[in-house]
């Protein structure tokens, strides 16, 4: 690919290319979750390797962001963006034809690396071609595109799976990235003259620490939480993350400036997407498997139900931005977004059950989605503008790393707890309540789980499994609601209260086009 820079900035074309790519990245997370039961059945996979189809992507996405963002400043943002798009496209193509679950896991990990390159370089490209108030608006569109990807992933994937099978999900991602790749040569190149090297030691310790922690969380329900390997993995995660902190403190130009965490406003803005990952993203991943397993709906039907959760993420961001600018202020809107998720998940916990009608779950899901939508249109711009303009790039990298690491951890923790709670609920039944049985149930494969008993007892046992799974899911939902309530209180305390001030424009970032 040529790295020659067009003389014209082309801000509109840059924003289109970045937002089109960013639309795919979260959709590849939430959309793939709908495909997991089909993938597991087709590739004859158990729960743990099937979970890594999601975990591998999110984990590498989160852990490579800082290093690739620093590398983009050195080699060029356009070059890194194009490389990331190419990696994502090629791995999506290979995933379309994967015939082994472990190969698919590996390909998804590589996709996450490509996604990290796209997101970090793309956000820096936007900052290069926009300035002043236009920069704030551009990042608002950027954040809305990311929210739209989260929202559209489950429904579009469900429709694709119903029509063409699970492989079409990855093929659809390929098609969009091919369009983006065609636009890349028309974009302007930019670099950071002050950038000199990548913090590989910090990258290694952070990546390894997050990886072994996620592995421990995934393996916990399978092996038992007091298993030696699980405990060793948890201890290794703590050690590696402590080493990461030590490495960053000794760097003259750290990729993860821990000093920013002394600013309560920045801490609050980094914490919010982590809490939202529990309140929204974990539901987007786990709920489709519940609908498929307990209610017996198809992947297409599950995707259509998920529209109740995801459509508000498309419709509400503009309302949230208006409320923050004109009426309530940023802090109130962000706190309100988490409270909506808390009320919605608690409400869903009280009505969820086998055979429950769509009407009963509609309002709770709409409320959770509205909570996510309230912050989707303002959070990125507020986070990046919360620090000095010269540190905006680093702040963007840290913010997105916290968001994606939070999503990886939230999905792993909630999935692991759901298996643990389900196993506890299945004790005393006609079959031994093993972790393998609980995993089959959580994976949505109640038919295979029910086959453990005699044919005459199968219908009754399937009902017992559905009730146990439902009780475990309700407990998980109550826990998510509690996390959202606590998070809303912490963020209300940390964020300063400002009156709406729409006339104040963001400070310029980057050179004028």
From TrEMBL:
UniProt entry tagged with the keyword Ribosomal protein: no
TM helices/strands, residue ranges: 53-72, 84-104, 110-127, 139-164, 170-188, 200-218, 224-245, 266-292, 304-325, 332-352, 358-383, 404-424, 477-495
Top-level taxon: Bacteria
Protein's name according to its UniProt entry: Drug resistance transporter, EmrB/QacA subfamily
Membrane topology summary: Multi-pass membrane protein
Principal cellular location given in the protein's record: membrane
InterPro entries per the UniProt record, alphabetical: MFS, MFS_dom, MFS_trans_sf, Sugar_transporter_CS
Organism whose genome encodes this protein: Actinokineospora diospyrosa
Domain Major facilitator superfamily (MFS) profile: 14-499
Subcellular compartments: Cell membrane
Disulfide bond recorded as keyword: no
A UniProt-annotated Pfam family: MFS_1
Keyword line: Membrane, Transmembrane, Transmembrane helix
């Amino acid at each position: 690919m040529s790295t020659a820079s067009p003389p014209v900035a082309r801000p509109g074309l840059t924003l289109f290319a970045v937002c089109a790519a960013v639309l795919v990245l979260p959709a590849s997370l939430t959309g793939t979750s709908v495909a997991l039961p089909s993938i597991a059945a087709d590739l004859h996979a158990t729960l743990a390797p099937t979970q890594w189809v999601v975990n591998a992507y999110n984990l590498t996405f989160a852990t490579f962001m800082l290093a690739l963002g620093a590398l983009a400043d050195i080699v060029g943002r356009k070059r890194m963006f194009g490389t990331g798009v190419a990696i994502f496209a090629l791995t999506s193509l290979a995933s379309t034809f994967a015939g082994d679950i472990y190969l698919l896991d590996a390909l998804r990990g590589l996709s996450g690396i490509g996604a990290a390159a796209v997101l970090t370089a793309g956000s820096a490209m936007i900052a290069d071609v926009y300035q002043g108030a236009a920069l704030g608006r551009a990042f608002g569109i950027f954040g809305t595109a990311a929210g739209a990807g989260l929202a559209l992933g489950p429904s579009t994937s469900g429709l694709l799976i119903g029509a063409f099978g699970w492989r079409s999900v990855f093929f659809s991602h390929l098609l969009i990235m091919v369009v983006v790749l065609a636009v890349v040569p028309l974009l302007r190149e930019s670099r950071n003259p002050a950038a000199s090297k990548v913090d590989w030691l910090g990258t290694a310790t952070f990546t390894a620490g997050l990886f072994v922690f996620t592995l421990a969380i995934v393996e916990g329900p399978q092996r038992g939480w007091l298993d030696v390997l699980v405990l060793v993995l948890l201890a290794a995660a703590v050690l590696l993350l402590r080493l990461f902190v030590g490495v960053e403190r000794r760097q003259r130009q750290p990729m993860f400036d821990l000093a920013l965490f002394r600013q309560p406003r920045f801490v609050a803005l980094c914490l919010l997407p982590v809490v939202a990952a529990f309140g929204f993203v974990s539901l987007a991943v786990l709920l489709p498997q519940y609908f498929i397993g307990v209610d017996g709906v198809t992947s297409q039907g599950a995707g259509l139900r998920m529209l109740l959760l995801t459509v508000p993420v498309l419709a509400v961001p503009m309302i949230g931005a208006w409320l923050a600018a004109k009426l309530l202020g940023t802090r109130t809107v962000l706190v309100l977004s988490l409270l909506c998720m808390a009320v919605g998940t608690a409400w869903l916990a009280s009505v969820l059950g086998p055979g429950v009608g769509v009407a009963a779950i509609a309002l709770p899901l709409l409320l959770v989605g509205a909570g996510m939508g309230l912050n989707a249109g303002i959070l990125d711009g507020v986070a990046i503008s919360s620090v000095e303009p010269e540190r905006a790039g680093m702040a963007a990298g840290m913010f997105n790393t916290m968001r994606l690491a939070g999503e990886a951890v939230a999905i792993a923790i909630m999935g692991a707890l759901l298996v643990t709670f389900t196993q506890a609920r299945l004790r005393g039944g006609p079959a031994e309540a093993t972790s393998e049985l609980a995993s089959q149930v959580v994976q949505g494969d109640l038919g295979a789980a029910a086959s453990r008993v005699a044919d005459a007892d199968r219908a009754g046992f399937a009902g017992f499994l559905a009730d146990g799974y439902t009780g475990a899911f309700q407990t998980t939902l109550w826990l998510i609601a509690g996390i959202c309530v606590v998070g809303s209180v912490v963020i209300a305390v940390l964020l300063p209260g400002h009156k709406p001030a729409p006339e104040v424009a963001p400070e310029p970032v980057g050179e004028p086009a």
